[in-house]
Automatic annotation (TrEMBL):
InterPro entries: MnmA-like, MnmA-like_C, MnmA-like_central, MnmA-like_central_sf, Rossmann-like_a/b/a_fold
Protein family (similarity comment): Belongs to the MnmA/TRMU family.
Single annotated GO MF: ATP binding
Annotated ATP binding sites: 6-13, 32, 125
UniProt-annotated stretches for the region Interaction with tRNA: 149-151
Gene name tied to this protein: mnmA
Residues of the site described as Interaction with tRNA: 126, 341
Protein name: tRNA-specific 2-thiouridylase MnmA
Cellular location(s): Cytoplasm
Source organism of this protein record: Brachybacterium phenoliresistens
Main location: cytoplasm
Amino acid sequence: MKVLAAMSGGVDSAVAAARAAEAGHEVVGVHMALSKDRSQTRVGSRGCCTVEDASDARVAAERIGIPYYVWDLSDDFHDLVVEDFLSEYAAGRTPNPCVRCNERIKFASLLERAKALGFDAVCTGHYASIRAEGPGGAPSLHRSRNSAKDQSYVLAVMGPEAIGSSLFPLGDMADKQAVREEARSRRLGVSTKPDSYDICFIADGDTRGFLERSLGEAPGEIVDADGAVLGTHRGTHGYTIGQRKGLGLHQPAADGRPRYVLDVRPESRQVVVGAAELLSTSRLLARDLVVFEPLSAGRRVTAQIRAHGEAIPGRIEQLPAGEELLEVSLEQSVRGVAPGQTLVLYDGDRVLAAATLERRA
């Protein structure tokens, strides 16, 4: 099989490419240059797809013995990931840019180019497994053996068609240390390289600063659940539901308990705050459903709303029809459900569906 290996410059993608080549596939490595700033460099272990990463990926490809190219996808990344991130925050939502990058860049833009060039599949270093357990033996997406690094949550929005054209060679790896040891034994040059984290296009980790620089200031009020004004803010885009720190309130609550962001209302420039218990819900409403296998109302599932959050048992109450949303009830309440987050439904370790949270019921 002719395979295009996405090589980020990290240890995971290098080992994945090596495993694909060792399995007998005809592998070509490609590094996706995602930054429009050609002078961008790695800050500590933050960020990815930098100049240093492209060099590290090249060295790994040479050690594996496969061709290597750099593709400039910076325009796609800016338009489909960065601009989406900004517009979602401006609308009072809380997006996950890693989900969008996997969906729109690593498994849309990249796969489209790969297919046009005659490749059969794309290979990445994601921690997830693909098995032939879908309807009629179709490929299905499962959690990784390494539960601490599992990335099935951020991959679920890809849908079954993209999954059928993907390879995840690290799905059976027990832990990250085993991946590093394999990279060391293969002399790939990245075995001790630190993991990237946080949002890759905000290399200094200052999300609020990035949003203020990009969206500007739009002052408004911070109010309680009854509408009483408690303070002011410089822009609703600096807040997300469930946030406790950085509210800028100097007057404590009457009961002395911490306040949390309950709602973000960009249309009225209001941020609503209140007690923690007001954040809890056991009913989720979501849109943009991506289905891996047929679903039915009443089906038991487990639901996950954060990349490394707990999967909570629940039940599908309503499937989308017309203007209706997907509705899922949970056996226990969750806190901090924010519009824009990704909801993934599982049956055991198998992904059933993904959707975008609209609101809590």
